[in-house]
Write a structure and sequence with these properties.
The complex is a heterodimer of chains A (about 700) and B (about 80). In chain A, about 60% of the residues lie in helices and about 5% in strands. With about 700 residues, chain A is of the alpha/beta class. In chain A, helix 4 links the parallel strand 4 and strand 5. Chain A is globular and about 85 Å long. Chain B has about 80 residues and is mostly beta strands. Chain B has one domain: Roll (SH3 type barrels), CATH 2.30.30. In chain B, strand 2 and strand 3 form a beta hairpin. The longest helix of chain B has 6 residues. Classes of the chains: A alpha/beta (about 700), B mainly beta (about 80). The interface between A and B is large, with 45 and 32 residues.
């Protein structure tokens, strides 16, 4: 079983017996030292193709929670955790999904470099390959590559229950015989057999003879590159397969050795691993002939895969499947777009509707409580701003942010897990290409509705540099959940649903215009699109709540304390009458250009930290619970437009710098601020004349 | 690529270049593809890679590197 280190573990000590107590402590210390000496360290990588359930597998083994979803490329960087099993301290690494060791994007490159130890950062002692059972033949592409690394390995046939329902049958014993690697069926979402995989891997590592018997097998099999009749065989028999797989491994290795010996070619940053051959165009672009030989070996690889698949894997499914029938509507040229619009409308409308109900319930508790606090602490002099500021920040988080944030996150998580987002990519690709981005970017834009930070990080899954830059500069215009809170609480709550929706439409129009503009000015083009479409899945409540908690936690532990600190600072600024001078500095913008109350200056500054701060700080700065008493409808709308569009929050800026660099981040900020000023100014003047 | 029709099955005869990248998506010579859907402008295709039990969406530009052959009814099995 999993043991977690508990250094504070106490032992029972008989009362009044000092010697016994000392003796007991010494014994415990000795035992602890012994245990520490006995503990062996292992580093285990969870490897698998995208969307095979690695992160769910990782979560089931650790207390650490990473995000999961039903689309390709949820994990774009590796995650680490340490677990203790038997007398092993195991560092478990959840790697980004990779189809084979021939990586094609930045996220896959991370996995490639760790597995081949290019970075000299991690030496992997063992691999658990997480395979989505329904697509076992496809996963064998990676399995064959991993076998060439000669690292002890176990295969987890994940989502085994779902595969059974889908009519998939796998002959596990035969598969094990062919690849000489233990294969264990798992259901990681229920934690079934995940621990068993780790225990089995330990066994394999302890008994390396289990994996190192290839030489004896290969010695019976005469094979060399020049006399490779195997290349032209379309399939192999049961008896031949294991030998052929070992030959395949040996072939890669001998080729790498040949290249090193004959050409003195050094694959920059790449260790002597067969995998580097897969990336021959990247590492040795002048060795074209080698690429041809490599292609021949790939042919052998595909023949091996097809042969194994035909013997161990079968699917019995009706034609057309239920999924095909749903897809006929979802991808239909008329119904598909109608469904897309309805899904997005439903997401926002129901989130707003539920948010309103929750907000009303919370208000009925919070308002009397707030009044009581005001009464209780009105005569506390210099401490008064501290208490009132704390109260406003704390209750602002509960009463204004949480009611709208949770329902919205619920629906976004539902979308992520259903498998609908990749279909949106297919539907939208045709519209997006003239804007300089492909359908693959849709994922980042949908993620942006939750949080711009994770959206920008997901750009690592895009293969085109230009597309990453384009999307990275424009994603800050996508209304994230923080801005949705502002829209729902401030605009929809006070002006009505259609005013709220018009803000989303405005964001959409601005994104399209900015993309068109950048695309026109730049020389980037040629956007091609290839993406896997996962099966539809009924989202599990456990997974959805875990996702909500992950994102909600960021608000509770990161944003909320800053929000409370912010309201305290504002209270003191107001107490010492400094707020007016700060607001004066910004009055040329707030009062002069946008026609807003002067008090909106400070909330705009706080909005740079996180957009929802601007909302809570606005209530605090205007010292009101009812915004309509102090601002006109026009001012509320203009303020919200400005908040939606102006500079990305500080976390987004930091992520932009990391992912697209300083130059493009600065351009993006200038673009956001100038768009916010121009659009808000035009809207304020337009609405003023119309009214 | 206008000739690729919905609901028909095609065999990959040859992949002209960058085989490893195509392989990542299960596109290997001799595998069968079923066309589930194609966009109205013939720019995107939604395919099932039959042997791999996978579905992919792919731009027409990628398909231009693949030589396809329509499979008649008796060859599908």
């Amino acid at each position: 079983m999993i043991k977690r280190v508990n250094m504070e573990k106490k032992t029972e000590v008989p009362k009044g017996c000092q010697e016994c107590e000392l003796g007991s402590i010494q014994k415990t210390v000795t035992e602890l030292k012994k245990n520490l000496r006995r503990t062996k360290r292992l580093r285990v990588a969870l490897v698998g193709q995208p969307n095979s359930g690695k992160s769910t597998f990782f979560n089931s083994l650790s207390n650490y929670k990473v995000n999961t979803a039903n689309y390709y490329g949820t994990t774009v960087e590796y995650h680490l955790t340490t677990i203790f099993i038997k007398n092993y301290e195991i560092e478990l690494i959840d790697l980004p999904g990779i189809y084979s060791l021939n990586y094609s994007d930045l996220a896959e490159k991370v996995s490639f470099e760790i597995l081949t130890n290019v970075r000299d950062e991690f030496k992997i002692d063992g691999i658990i390959q997480v395979v989505e059972t329904s697509s076992l033949p496809h996963a064998l592409l990676l399995t064959l590559d991993l076998l060439t690394l000669d690292i002890p390995m176990v295969i987890a046939l994940n989502m085994f229950d779902e595969a059974r329902i889908r009519g998939v049958n796998v002959d596990i014993q035969l598969l094990q015989d062919f690849i000489n690697v233990p294969v264990i069926p798992t259901v990681s979402i229920k934690g079934e057999n995940t621990l068993k995989c780790v225990l089995k891997l330990i066994e394999v590592i302890e008994n390396t003879s289990l994996i190192n018997d290839e030489d004896s097998v290969i010695s019976n099999y005469s094979f060399n590159i020049k006399n490779g009749s195997l290349f032209y065989r379309a399939s192999f028999s049961k008896e031949e397969l294991r030998d052929v797989i070992n030959s395949y491994k040996r072939l890669w290795k001998s080729m790498v050795k040949d290249i090193f010996d004959s050409t003195n070619c050094h694959f920059e940053n790449c260790k002597l691993v067969p995998a580097c051959l897969m990336n021959i165009e990247k590492y040795a672009p002048n060795m074209k002939s080698l690429a041809n030989v490599r292609d021949e070996i790939l042919k052998l690889k595909s023949n091996i895969i097809m042969s194994i698949s035909s013997l161990v894997f079968s699917v019995q499914k009706p034609s057309p499947t239920f999924e095909d029938l749903i897809d006929r509507f979802v991808l239909n040229r008329f119904w598909g777009y109608l469904i897309l619009i309805l899904v997005m409308f439903f997401t926002f409308y129901v989130a707003y509707f539920l948010g309103n109900i929750i907000a009303d319930k919370i208000d009925s508790v919070v308002d009397p409580l707030s009044a009581k606090v005001d009464d209780l602490f009105k005569d506390y002099g210099i401490l008064n701003p501290l208490i009132i500021g704390f109260k406003e920040g704390f209750l602002g988080g509960i009463g204004i942010v949480i009611p709208y944030l949770i329902p919205f996150l619920f629906f976004i998580s539902l979308l992520e897990d259903s498998g609908y987002i990749p279909r949106m990519m297919y539907l939208m690709d045709g519209f997006l290409k003239p804007l300089g981005i492909s359908g693959r970017s849709v994922l980042s834009f949908v993620l942006g509705l939750g949080c711009n930070v994770s959206a920008i990080m997901s750009l690592r899954g895009l293969t085109k540099y230009s597309e990453r830059i384009f999307a990275g500069m424009v994603i800050p215009f996508v209304p994230c959940s923080a801005r949705t809170v502002v829209v729902m609480a401030l605009v929809t709550g006070t002006l009505g649903v259609w005013w709220g929706l018009s803000l989303y439409l405005l964001s959409f129009l601005i994104i399209v215009t900015v993309l068109l503009l950048i695309n026109k000015l730049s020389k980037f083009n040629h956007l091609y699109f290839m993406v896997h479409i996962p099966p539809y899945r009924v989202p599990s409540l456990k997974s959805i709540f875990s996702k909500i908690w992950l994102r909600f936690k960021t608000f509770v532990f990161t944003a909320w304390p800053v929000l409370i600190l912010g309201t305290i600072v504002l209270s003191y600024l107001s107490y010492f009458q400094l707020d007016r001078s700060i607001n004066n500095v910004f009055s040329f913008l707030t009062v002069g250009l946008l026609g807003l109350p002067q008090e909106t200056g400070i909330p705009l500054i706080f909005g740079v930290l996180a957009k929802e701060y601007a909302l809570v700080m606005l209530y605090s700065a205007l010292n009101t619970d009812n915004i309509k008493m102090v601002m006109t409808n026009l001012q509320i709308f203009v303020f919200s437009v400005f908040i939606m569009l102006y500079t990305p929050c500080i976390s987004t800026i930091a992520t932009q710098v990391k992912e697209i660099g300083w130059k493009y981040t600065v351009i993006s900020i200038i673009l956001s601020v100038s768009t916010a000023i121009i659009v808000s100014f035009i809207i304020s003047k337009l609405l003023y004349f119309m009214s | 690529m206008e000739s690729i029709e919905k609901d028909k099955i095609y065999k990959i005869k040859e992949i002209v270049r960058d085989k490893p990248s195509y392989m990542n998506y299960g596109l290997i010579e001799d595998t069968l593809l079923r066309v589930i859907d194609k966009s109205s402008d013939n720019k995107n295709f939604y395919l099932e890679v039959i042997g791999f039990n996978r579905k992919i969406a792919i731009s027409v530009e990628f398909l231009q590197d693949i030589v396809l052959e329509e499979v008649s009814g008796d060859q599908k099995g």
